[in-house]
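Appendix C reproduces, verbatim, an entry submitted by the partner laboratory led by Prof. M.T., so that reviewers can inspect both the input and the predicted structure.
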Amino acid sequence: MLQIPRPDDWHLHVRDGAAMASVLPHTARHFGRALLMPNLRPPVRTVAEAAAYRDRVRAALAAAGAADPSLPPFEPWFALYLTAQTAPAEVEAAKSSGFVLSFKLYPAGATTNSDAGVRDLRDAAPVLEAMEALGVPLCVHAESTDPEVDIFDREAVFLRDQAAWLTETFPKLRLVIEHITTEEAVDFVLSAPDTVAATVTPQHLLLNRNALFQGGVRPHRWCLPVLKRERHRQALLRAVASGSRKFFLGTDSAPHARHTKEADCGCAGCFTAPHAVALYAWAFEQAGALDHLADFAGRSGARFYGLPAATGTLTLERAPWQIPAAHPFGGGEGGDQEVVPLFAGEVIPWRVAAP
């Protein structure tokens, strides 16, 4: 048995409407807090839009709690979608809101619903200056969108050309490099000041790019940033095993209806919310670092964001557990009402113990 603080998820997609109502309880069951991503349609760009989204999230949580009174309390936090039109005054509003924690930089075209993102970081300089001055963090999807850059090199190129410019131009800006996937990202974070941190997903700790083609094309392992070579996975494992507080939990759990994944142009994203904590335990065990899981999951992220450490506990046990083949997913088109989790139908060695 392994007991850790009730984890925080500092990078989570829960969608909206019926889809959100389906997936949000999975996170609330195991996590105490989460930072919800703003790449909806339309995106969540302002504090007013985040407040409306928070109302919908709270309504979904209330409905889930009414259906399952054992569901523990859960606190959502929100990121605002950064655009070239974001005004510095929006940073002040976010800082004083009490529920908006950060802004999110999506390079235009980099990932799901990123078409409204920033095309040239210099266009966002005034708002970045305001964020630096007020201590509001910027979460970064760190991938180059230059079509000439190989998909497996996009993270390294962004770090070299864009993230380095950010840290040099705004040296006090608090940056979270999201869902890091490469040795270059680990090195960038470790060599940067304490104002720079990173989230790490379970899929990038457990899988390399061979997993995309294991026995055939595996669409439910397709995510962005894409899985990388084994040497990069090993670098991530070494990073979390080091105990550095610069690395913390962010699942990037991203639900898509089955038919949108199993398609001729499938959506990117791995759905891990129901079993993410067990996957992290599996990865940390591989790294020989189970003693660092508690800080990674429940303390380091809160420390970076200036929040109290996680409260409550979650107990894991090392026992074989088969991941369900699918979960209900409201709002699917064409009668498709299910979402397939990462490792669907497979047996993993860890599970969350019954309360």
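DSSP finds twelve helices and 13 strands in the chain. Additional entries are available on request from the coordinating office.
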